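Support reply, case 0932

Customer input (verbatim):
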Amino acid sequence: MNTALSTLKFVAAKRLVATTDPIQFRRQKMIKKLDEQIAMAQALAEGRSYAVTRLKRVRDAESGLKRVVETSASARQWWFVSESGKVAVQLRYGSKVIMLTKNRNAVEVNSPSELFSVLQTLKTAVAQGELDNEISVAADMVRARFAKK
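Our regenerated output:
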């Protein structure tokens, strides 16, 4: 008597859990935020507005079912006009400003037209891991705010 289960091979298997390297995770998070800043700078140069969109789950009041809707989220510019009248760009991880070098937390841009290329250069530096230590320090400061007291 041949059963359907007798034709199968049974094994003791364990699923591998994909662990994300924290450095890679922070790098990707920073690159995603830099992409938003680049899009914001392009929109500013073209004279149009830019809004960051996020997917959000909401519960329908009538049926009680959850559905995914696209909502706009606030995004803060990482650049500003400094005291010298030039544009300065700061990298942020969460709400913390990243110290790019010792006692320096911004990149000076001579004109608003150079803003796009500076943001692209910063994105390349983050992708190549040049700012991993600085990002880790900022991430630790952000994490410390959530620590139990």
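We compared this against your earlier run and they match. Two observations from our side: The longest helix spans residues 22-46. The chain has one domain: 21-145. Please reopen the case if you see a mismatch on your end.
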